[in-house]
Amino acid sequence: MTEGLCQCGCGNPTRIAPYSCKRDGWIKGKPIRFIKGHYFRLTPSGAENHNWKGGRRYNPSCGVMIMRPDHPRRSVNGYVLEHVLIVERALGHPLPANAVIHHVNRNNADNRNSNLVICQDSSYHKLIHLRMIALKACGHSDWRRCAYCKRWDSPDNLVTISCGRSYHGHCVNENNIKRYHQKHPLSSYRPHKKLTKDQVIEIRKLCNRGIPAYKIADQFGVSKSNVQQIKQNRIWKHF
Ligand SMILES: [Zn+2]
Ligand SMILES: [Zn+2]
Ligand SMILES: [Zn+2]
């Protein structure tokens, strides 16, 4: 094997080792043996690999996977979902590109024909799961949950926006008011406060001294506009 070329046989030159490393077999200043990632080209794949488990594995999030390196729906490592193969065998032709398979009993390891349903796309599949969740939670498959109060309700009482989020109109209003007062604590509702004659005179005095209205409002527990109205003689004119 020529030194300086990748030993997988691809013929590309390898880089110079920047330091010595016993684990990787690097010697500082000499070219390394493989281009990054090419070492695995020498390890046999499939049945010849020492780790071969028969081409069938179970992935809890997707289902049973079968080794089919020639299938158009294969993953990067050459595996295809077993339920796709079963449905395609039953149909006699490949599944459309967007089609998704739903497991009726929600057990993705159970690939009996009676447990598989073809969905035209993933949004239809999501709808099936949403209806199953609603039926279990409140006994009505078409009811939806309010995003604010978290209660299930009939779609007649809810507003649903295009992304699929549902809510009560009054829940949005309450939430908006709550958020407004979190953001503007000074302007939150203050009960009507009766000022005494002395306090009004004091407020006018402070205004004339040039103290900002919001500071005076805080001091006397009234709103800023109230102070401005006193200053401009629009209220409490008789003092
Ligand atoms: Zn190579
Ligand atoms: Zn499903
Ligand atoms: Zn609500």
| Inertia-based shape | elongated
By DSSP (H or I, 4+ residues per run), the number of helices equals: 6
Instruction: Determine the N-to-C terminus distance.
Output: 105 Å
What binds here, in terms of ligands, is:
zinc ion
Please give the order of strands in the largest beta sheet. 1-2-3
β-strand percent reads: 5-15%
Brief rundown of the structure:
By secondary structure, this protein is an alpha+beta fold.
Could you characterize the architecture of this molecule?
- The mean pLDDT is 87.
- The chain is elongated.
- The protein folds into 4 domains: 1-42, no CATH class; 56-142, no CATH class; 143-183, no CATH class; 194-231, no CATH class.
- It is an alpha+beta fold and 239 residues long.
- The protein has a 3-stranded antiparallel β-sheet.
- It contains 6 helices and 9 strands, in the order βββαββαββββαααα.
- One zinc ion (ZN) binds at residues 102-103, 125, 129.
Blueprint (SSEs and pairs):
Layout lengths: L55 E4 L3 E5 L11 E3 H10 L8 E4 L12 E4 L2 H17 L5 E2 L6 E2 L5 E2 L5 E2 L1 H15 L13 H12 L4 H8 L3 H8 L8
Antiparallel strand pairs: 1-2, 2-3, 4-5, 6-7, 8-9
Helix pairs in contact: 5-6
The structure holds zinc ion (3 copies).
The site of one zinc ion has 7 residues, from loops.
List keywords for this structure.
about 10% strand; about 240 residues; elongated; 6 helices; 4 domains; binds zinc ion
